[in-house]
Write a structure and sequence with these properties.
Shape: globular
Structural class: mainly beta
Order of helices and strands: EEEEEEEEEEEE
Strand order of the largest sheet: 1-4-11-6-9
Radius of gyration: 14 Å
Strand content: 35-45%
Number of strands: 12
Helix content: under 10%
Number of helices: 0
């Protein structure tokens, strides 16, 4: 499991650094201006799951699952609903990690 760091996106543009998605999952900071960018360079669809640790009215809130098609990419907002009360970070898992890269982007 890797702890992904947020990379600031400059108003003039930026070239972020991507990391390989970890087989055991990753963690990421959460906030209103943060996005997880997932690039699936593999030959099959990958599901990215963000754990939703909270409850609403005593009922569990379903985890968020985003399907990223083969050869496609997705942007996932890292909202505070994903914040783990112990770590303060979002827990992210992937159904497959072959040729999948990720970056956390902080928008200006």
């Amino acid at each position: 499991m890797a702890a992904l760091a947020a990379q600031s996106v400059a108003l003039a543009g930026s070239v972020p650094t991507y990391a390989a998605a970890a087989g055991g999952g990753d963690t990421a900071p959460v906030g209103s201006n943060l996005l997880l960018h997932v690039i699936n360079g593999g030959g099959s669809s990958v599901t990215v799951t963000l754990v939703t640790p909270g409850t609403s009215g005593g009922l569990a809130v379903a985890d968020a699952a985003v399907a990223v098609a083969a050869g496609a990419s997705a942007f996932v907002p890292l909202r505070s609903v994903y914040r783990n009360s112990v770590t303060g970070r979002a827990a992210i898992t992937y159904s497959g990690v072959t040729s999948v890269t990720v970056a956390v982007l902080r928008l200006p």
